[in-house]
Amino acid sequence: MNFIKALIEKGHEVHTIAPQDDYTHHLISEGCIHHKVKMDSRGANPVKDAALIFELFFIYRKLKPDIILHYTIKPNVYGTLAASILGIPVINNVCGLGTAFLKNNLISWVAIALYKVSFRFASKVFFQNPEDLKLFLRKKLVRAKAADILPGSGIDLTRFKPSPFKRNPKFTFLLISRLITDKGVLEYVEAVRRLKSYGLNATFQVLGAMDPKHKRGIKLNVIQEWINSGTIEYLGTTNDVRKFIDGADCVVLPSYREGTPRTLLEAASSAKPIIATDVPGCNNVVENNVNGLLCKIKDAGDLAEKMKIMAGFEDEKLRVFGLNGRAKMESEYDESLVIEKYLSTLSTLRNAS
């Protein structure tokens, strides 16, 4: 939103293109001109999704924008193909690699092929961690001169700021995530069960939307069993995560792979210790034993061990972890760095046209 505000303040006309949802009115109220699309964010059928090329093509042809900015996998691929037909320059942001790079099957092969074709036409492709950029270069999915790094979407340091250190009488872990398997939710719940069997006196919270229609969504009856059995404290969803982060002692994200996970940026900026998997995206935000602990991917036992260690730390250790995380956010992830890089790239492209 702050990037959109910066564009409008500089006199640019900003159009947003996305499915209509509960947040669309925020874009319109800030001065954006919004256009609906029918994109299905859950599906992974390239033939079905190809219709998005035509939908975006007709919108782009009508608007005749100077530059198009794409975010997330489907707009990056199909939007770039649509823009290339019209000769409109695009800037893509690879927020994360998704299932295509976690599995080896026909769908992943097609997805990688689509990246290779579409990204030939991108003027700039931003990646959110160095590992993703190196992977795309190694697979020859992007031109080296078009690739660059951004620190995720950045973090608003004035919105997410530390509260005075206070440890809960009962140590509180918080997982913030959609309830899908790729986020490591099953490993978190299994780790919680192990810790409870060990007799660890702690609270284990989950904040995030249930998404049973997602291909890798967790079934509602499974989640309900976790709640009914008292395994987790389910907090539902929220439009403002700050009070939940402030109320936790440690934020956990055992994801299988990320771009730059926003929940970890928010936690670190709020000076909270973090436990995350030692995978690209997560290990760029968390430095082991500096601002948190790293655990093995898909390993509930190792996650439980790291959670047990975290809960056993003295207050001063937890406080230092938090301060280190905040300092890292200030030096590397301030959203002003992201905004400035985008504005600089936009200026370069406009001057070149």
Helices and strands in order, then pairings?
Blueprint lengths: L1 H8 L5 E4 L5 H6 L3 E4 L9 H4 L1 H13 L4 E4 L1 H14 L3 E5 L11 H13 L5 E4 L2 H9 L8 E3 L21 E6 L8 H14 L3 E6 L12 H9 L4 E2 L7 H5 L3 E4 L8 H8 L4 E4 L4 H4 L6 E4 L4 H13 L2 H19 L1 H18 L1
Parallel strand pairs: 1-2, 3-4, 4-5, 5-6, 7-8, 7-10, 8-9, 10-11, 11-12
Report the portion of residues in β strands.
5-15%
Q: What's the order of the H and E elements?
A: HEHEHHEHEHEHEEHEHEHEHEHEHHH
- CATH homologous superfamily of the largest domain? Glycogen Phosphorylase B
CATH architecture of the largest domain: 3-Layer(aba) Sandwich
Short summary of the structure?
With 353 residues, the chain is α/β, with parallel strands linked by helices.
Write a concise keyword list for the protein shown above:
single chain; 353 residues; alpha/beta; Rossmann fold; 2 domains
Folded structure, characterized:
This protein is an alpha/beta fold and about 350 residues long. It is built from 15 helices and twelve strands. The protein folds into two domains: about 1-155 and about 335-350, 3-Layer(aba) Sandwich (Rossmann fold), CATH 3.40.50; about 170-330, Rossmann fold (3-Layer(aba) Sandwich). The strands form three sheets. Strands 9-8-7-10-11-12 form a six-stranded parallel beta sheet, sandwiched between helices. Strands 3-4-5-6 form a four-stranded parallel beta sheet. It is globular, with a radius of gyration of 21 Å.
